[in-house]
Design a protein that fits this description.
- The structure is a homodimer of 114-residue chains.
- Helices cover 0% and strands 60% of the residues of chain A.
- The first copy, chain A, is mostly beta strands.
- The first copy, chain A, has one domain (22-109): Jelly Rolls (Sandwich), CATH 2.60.120.10.
- In chain A, strands 2, 3, 4, 5, 6, 7, 8 and 9 form an 8-stranded antiparallel sheet that branches.
- The A-B interface holds A 1, 4-12, 14, 28-31, 33-34, 36, 38, 55-59, 61, 67, 69-70, 72, 74, 76, 78-85, 101, 103-106 and B 1, 4-12, 14, 28-31, 33-34, 36, 38, 55-59, 61, 67, 69-70, 72, 74, 76, 78-85, 101, 103-106.
- Strand 8 (81-84) of chain A pairs antiparallel with strand 1 (8-9) of chain B.
């Protein structure tokens, strides 16, 4: 493995990166094949539409999000999940503040610092 | 892709499979490369020690779990994460009822029905 996190990554300890616009990101467990990212959104914050070759699932831990995959948008709440196939455009708008878990395969190397 | 879920998998709609011993499992978003499984544990329920070639991260959505990876055990609560490298033994004991998210790469074909 080129990339590998600690075996336990605690939410109170993992670095919180303010990426602007009311979005704060924590890199949680990962290796070359898999990465879990915890993302806190303020109400109104936007995950802008983009695409990447990674497979992704997003899971709503808390809050409410309008989540778009391709041409389809759904309002998601705690316990709901979106699946984003590789290279499909997707984005989210936070309707009530909360936390999205973004999970990628393979690892998002661009999220990792040297 | 051989396996691919719907693009939106809602927690109120996804099938709940009672796998016994106080453990109820929902298969959420997935494709060949990635699978998110939501697992509800009653207090005292056990995820027995096992290993598999898949990479895994586990995330505590709610509750408290004693989670073991290899030789190390930690008490995890909401917002905490464990990373399980391929072929490393791991297991969990639920100390306060809650939900673990188990995420695998590649997909757990053994969890999918024909």
């Amino acid at each position: 493995m080129k990339f590998e996190s600690e075996r336990f990554v605690l939410g109170d300890v993992a670095e919180k990166e303010d990426v602007g616009g009311g979005v704060v990101r924590q890199i949680m467990g990962h290796n070359d094949d898999l990465m879990l990212v915890r993302v806190r959104f303020a109400e109104g914050a936007i995950g802008y539409t983009h695409a990447h070759p990674h497979s992704q699932v997003a899971y709503v831990e808390s809050g409410v999000f309008d989540f778009t995959v391709g041409e389809e948008t759904k309002t998601l709440k705690t316990g709901d999940c979106a699946y984003v196939p590789p290279d499909v455009e997707h984005g989210a708008v936070c309707k009530e503040s909360g936390v999205l878990l973004d999970i990628f395969s393979p690892v998002r190397e661009d999220f990792l610092k040297d």
